[in-house]
Structure prediction request, 396 residues.
Amino acid sequence: MENFASSLSRLTGESTLLYQEIARNVERTRGIKTINFGIGQPDLPTPQRIRDEAKVALDKGFTAYTPALGLDELRSKIAEFLTQRYGDQIRKEEVAVTPGAKTALFLAFLMYVNPGDEVIMFDPSFYSYGEVVNLLGGKPVYVPLHFNENTGFSVDMNELVSKITPRTKMIVYNNPHNPTGMNFNDKLAKDLVDIAREKRLILLSDEIYDYFVYDGGFRSVLQESWRDNVIYINGFSKTFSMTGWRLGYIVARKEVINKVGILASNIYTCPTSFAQRGALASFDTFDEVKHMIDLFRRRRDVMFSELKTLKGIKVYRSSGAFYMFPDVSEILKRTGMDSKALAVKIIEEGGVVTIPGEVFPEKVGRNFLRLSFALDEEKIKEGVSRMKLALEKLTG
Prediction:
């Protein structure tokens, strides 16, 4: 029973969920009600119109298989929506609906990564990118993001180009960015598309947080000349607060989507039928989306102001997503801890869940903690206050 496939040994198995479990244990054993800055999902319910549409589908018995690539109506709606938003004529045949954006990412890697292939991604980055590449026998190659307290995180394009070798197959781009909360400038999207085209690479663009933008504009890779090199990933989880519904989508040229259909039929058959019917109603809920983004902008400002009062912390006011990624290197030096140990201590001493930057590979995150501001403003204030007391206790 334990003679597992050798590929499993390449996975660390560590994720943000580990620290949620530590918090639950503290609540059970010590009776401390924790405040959770670790969770990566909006705290608002899925809009009522979406839930109602899914209920109607269930009541009508819409519970059978759908096409492997998703409902034609939903694929068409996604294509129409992206065409209106970005100005390019995207067709239904260039869209595949998947059971969550993570599945979309997995399929994209599965289509292109062979053993020994190199995949360039930012450091830090969402942990699943590197995990899936490792699972497939590829090699993650990390390009460090450089931190400035005033301007946030940036990538040195010369440094990125220097990482490209004959084995490089793909570049992974995530904007707005998890875990840093960075909304990168418009030029980065164009530069990455240009480099992918010049070097004949795949650019995998994860834009799941595209509506969570608080400062400046947002430029998608779909606004560039994308069809020859880009795989675009998005989903319904964040924008419409539908994390548990597990619906994502891929946009790519028709020939790529046809391959997605083959993989889908062999791996999961199809996305959930009634969830897709609910998703069709999501495009009529942008009033609620705007309200949520305005709410999160205020929460962002509250968390930034509160974190600025903590000694030993450097923090940039996030311009996108719903995360702060403060530099805690001074506290780590004073305590002799790493970020994992510090995150556990903050849970144990303060009842506050943060995510250590080490969860987000590879090296840059070691000096950071990730905090989500997807919770009530009063809880944000109380949580940071608890952190302050815990850190004072740890540093003397």
In short: The chain has a mean pLDDT of 96. The first helix runs from residue 17 to 30.
